[in-house]
# Entry
Amino acid sequence: MTKKYVKGDKTKETILKKSETLFANQGFEKTTVRQIAKAAGVNVAAIFYHFKTKENLHQEIFESCFSKVNLDIKMALESSKRADEKIKDMIFALVTSPSQHTNIHQIIIRETINRSKHLEQIIKKYIQKNHDLIEDTIKEGIKIETFKDYDPMLCTFSLVGMVLFYFTYQPIIESIDKEKHTMDHVVENIYNVFINGMRKGSARYCKS
# Structure
């Protein structure tokens, strides 16, 4: 078990940030504990003191990011708001928490492409839980006929995909569009695009 993180523990915070960048750029296997220690400006012993193993360090990066996302999504799901309002709160959670972990999406993409040994654990422990909560909300909207009767699972992937696209292509977006969009603006845009496609009464794609 790793040493519990306490906010204000600068050494551990630095190790987490530097290792996140290295894992994103090089992958888990190619990143060594010595490289992490050098980037964080600490000795190797400090890495083992806080995390015991490189695997624990890798896992804690996901824990520090997705634990808050999961909590915020659960709070949205448990609220008395309408399904579409819950979706907006969930998008806010998906956008704002990972924004503090700028490399987390690159790590996930790298793990996915490489079919790494950590991929199944990442999916089951972090991604699946959030996916299920969002899908439940979409099902709720379909049941009460707020949303169109589309495939809830694919709709969930579509919503998460819009969020992932923003983070993955952020350097390109910023290069093309010089405006510095706020997170609130990003949330509002993703929400409007998604909800206008899901809400009953809007234009519907017709199968040929």
Observations:
- The CA atoms of residues 197 and 204 lie 8 Å apart.
